[in-house]
Amino acid sequence: MTRAYSIASPPSQRSILTLVFNRVDHGPGSTLLFGLKPGDQVHFKGLAGSFRLRDDVPRNLLFVSTGTGIAPIRSMLQTLLSKATPQVVSLLWGLRAQRDLYYQEGLHELVAARHPMFHSTITLSRPDPGWTGPTGRVTALVQERVKTVDNLAVYLCGNGGMIKDVTGFLRSKGLCPIYREKWYDEENEEE
Fold first, then answer.
1. pLDDT tens-digit readout, 50-62
2. How many angstroms from the chain centroid is the CA of residue 174?
3. Residue 68: which residues within 8 A CB-CB, separation 6 or more?
4. Which domains can be identified in the chain, with CATH numbers?
5. Burial level of 65, CB count in 10 A (0-12/13-18/19+)?
6. pLDDT for 114
7. CB 123 within 8 A of CB 93
8. Which residue ranges of the chain lie beneath pLDDT 50?
9. What was the pLDDT predicted at 112?
10. What is the H or E stretch that residue 71 is in?
11. Are the beta carbons of 78 and 104 closer than 8 angstroms?
């Protein structure tokens, strides 16, 4: 049985491979991975896909993800923002609730590392009381924030519904490069 996982570590980090995944009850892949102990050996197939960072200079970049769709986008952001970039780089990340938040320190480190052109926003579709950030679907956030697709390249990773809706919205605004990687996780799909 084969399971596909996106790599969250940047290509420059050659000695460590970082994966992001949710534990699924009785899921063969996540059960195996969660059961690993330091020193355990695993075997895997190499890269299989085309979702990668392109050279879109001088276009501004918009990254949109839901749930663990942040994994390849995290890798791209770390690669892109490790060097000076003149582009405006924005991340819109949709999750269900606070318990689904991770990589907060890493996102703040990117901003703290003096990348004034990097902006990130997290929206929760089912926030707990006390959440002060944006609420609702990430698709609504895209519709609110994107006024034009002129000079824009977009990277989408997450559930199929988000990718379909955001792609349709962006295409209604005009033509721009849209790169996508779809996954489906019924239990953790952002609504």
1. 888 998 878 999 9
2. 23
3. 6, 20, 21, 22, 183, 185, 188
4. 60-188 (3.40.50.80)
5. buried
6. 61
7. yes
8. 185-191
9. 58
10. helix 70-81
11. no
pLDDT of residue 105: 65
Looking at residue 186, its pLDDT comes to 42
What is the β-pairing status of strands 89-95 and 60-66?
parallel
Instruction: Return d(Cα 9, Cα 163) in angstroms, integer.
Output: 23
Going across the sheet that includes 118-124, the strands are 118-124, 89-95, 60-66, 152-159, 178-183
SS3 category, 91: strand
**Amino acid letter at 43?**
H
pLDDT at res. 190: 39
Residue 112 main-chain phi, psi, to 5 deg? -65, -25
Q: Which amino acid, residue 124? A: L
Strands 152-159 and 118-124: unpaired
Instruction: Dump pLDDT digits (tens) for 141-160.
Output: 999 999 999 999 999 999 99
Closest CA to 183 of 46, 31, 65: 65
Let me know: does 33 contact 25? Beta carbons within 8 Å. no
Which DSSP string corresponds to 122-173?
EEESSPPTT--S-BS-HHHHHHHH-S--TTEEEEEEEEHHHHHHHHHHHHHH
**Of how many residues is the chain composed?**
191
